[in-house]
Each structure stands twice: as C-alpha cells, then as structure tokens.
Design brief:
This protein is of the alpha/beta class. The protein is 37% helix and 16% strand. The chain has one domain: P-loop containing nucleotide triphosphate hydrolases (Rossmann fold, 3-Layer(aba) Sandwich).
Length: 274
C-alpha cells in the first residue's frame, strides 16, 4: 500500500499544524446559506483527515441537521443544561443578582456533552433567551468561556456557525479567529448585512473578513457582489442549486457531491490555508 503520510498537499502551504488548528467563523444575514456553507467546510476539512469542531452558535440551531447527525432536534444546547450551568458557575440559569463565576471550568465539555460522527465533533451552544445582547448571567458566562476555550485552547480545526453578527465573539477570542467568512447572496439586504458585520468585526479587532457568494444564478450576480463589496476579499462562490433547497426542505444533510460543489468548497478551504 502506498504511504502518502508525508505527501504535501496545496492546503498545507503554511504548514499542516496551521491547517489542523484553523478557526473559521461563518456569518451572514439569515437565509443566505450560512449554515450550508459551514457544513460544507466541515465536510471538506474532515475529508482531508482532520478532526473538526463544528460549533453551532446560531440561536436557530441547524448545523447538526445539515451535517447529518441523527435526531439533531434532540440535542440539548449547552445554554439549556441547567444543572451543568449551576455546577460550573455556582448559580441557576435565569437567576438575577447574586454571585457566579465569570470564568467557569469548561475544558471537559467538548468530550462529555457533545455529539461526534465521522471525525466531526458537534457543539451546540444555544443562546441566552432573556435580557439584552449584553446580558451578564450564568448562561452567558458559560457560553463565553466555552467559546473562548474552543478557539484559544483546542487544537482541532473549528468551524463556527454564527448568527448574523459577532455577538458570541469578544476581543479575547476575535484575535484567534483565522478568518470570518460572510456569506452573501445577490440582494441589497444581504450586501448591507455584510458591511454591517464587517464593521462589527472590526470593532472587536477582527479584520480578516472575506466573503463567499452563494445562490449565484449567472455571471451578472457575481459581478454585482464584486462591485458592491470591493473592500472584501472574495474567497469563492457557490451556484443556486435546486438540490440544495430540496435537501433543506426535506431535512436531508448537506452534501459535497452536488455538481461543482466539492471543487468550489475545496478551493475556498485552500485559500483559507494560505
């Protein structure tokens, strides 16, 4: 049997260690295909033999379904694990006032409270359902500490499916994100959201922001995105494919096997490794 262990592939240009530890945040306006791209990136990286952390940080958790995890609707988000939150922070979820730990222990959560299949470990963060974006509560303290641990201290590559913003990130973690990808589709609301996300990311020191065009129907769609978002690096694009919509509607997982998708997603990952 041929031994390709030492074979250097294009995505190893900056060293295998960098690729193995790559941290990618995926954001964009709702409905643009953000979760689909996050799942495709996870699948591509897994096919390259890497261990992957798939982090679902979107309040509407659907990354597990996109990756084909069995019964994803039965996965309890970390933010809803009341006993765990109480144990680690010293306060029950929903409590107001009083004291709780701002830096709870989280290093064992990926192994003990997450699902794994085909080399992909799924972490469903959930969200704080009460209070404002700046809510200081036991749940938010645990989520912030966990995301910081996943980005700063874990060795696996991580793909983080964000909500349409940077609320889960902070200055402590933004600097360790290798790249934020903003998924855009042809449409003014999507383009405006990309500019807003870029500004919010810059406010916390995350300047490595690129775009991936999705649902591209024709060359003029791509030209519109390029012209409107000249300040962004375009890392790649995916076509509008009815099979993607059909899979989403029927609850089937995302696949790299659609015509042209494997090469296009691989090209995006190659660029991220440079």
């Amino acid at each position: 049997m041929r031994n390709d262990r030492n074979k250097v592939t294009p995505w190893q240009n900056h060293g295998e260690l960098h690729v193995k530890q790559m941290k990618i945040a995926v954001s964009g306006k709702g409905g643009v295909g953000k979760t689909t791209l996050a799942a495709l990136l996870c699948l591509d990286l897994s096919n390259r033999g890497l261990q992957i952390l798939a982090v679902d940080a979107d309040p509407v958790a659907s990354l597990g379904a996109a990756l084909g995890f069995p019964e994803p609707e039965k996965i309890t988000p970390i933010s809803e694990m009341k006993d765990l939150i109480a144990e680690r922070t010293g306060a029950r979820p929903g409590s107001i006032g009083g004291y709780f730990k701002l830096n709870p222990r989280v290093e064992d959560i990926p192994e003990n409270f997450c699902r794994e299949q085909n080399g992909i470990r799924l972490v469903v963060m959930g969200t704080v359902k009460a209070g404002g974006a700046g809510c200081i509560c036991p749940e938010s303290a645990l989520l912030r500490a966990l995301l910081q641990h996943l980005i700063l201290e874990r060795n696996e590559a991580a793909v983080i499916d964000m909500e349409a913003g940077v609320e889960h990130l902070g200055r402590a973690t933004a600097g360790a994100v290798d790249r934020m990808l903003v998924v855009v589709e042809p449409g003014q609301r999507s383009l405006a959201a990309a500019r807003m996300i870029r500004k919010l990311a810059g406010d916390i020191g995350l300047f490595r922001v690129g775009i991936v065009a999705n649902k591209v129907r024709k060359e003029s769609d791509l030209e519109t995105i390029k012209t409107s978002l000249r300040e962004f690096e375009l890392l790649g694009w995916l076509p509008l494919d009815p099979a993607v919509i059909e899979a989403d509607l029927s609850g089937r997982p995302t696949s790299l096997d659609l015509p042209g998708f494997r090469d296009r997603v691989g090209s995006i990952v190659d660029k991220l490794g440079k």
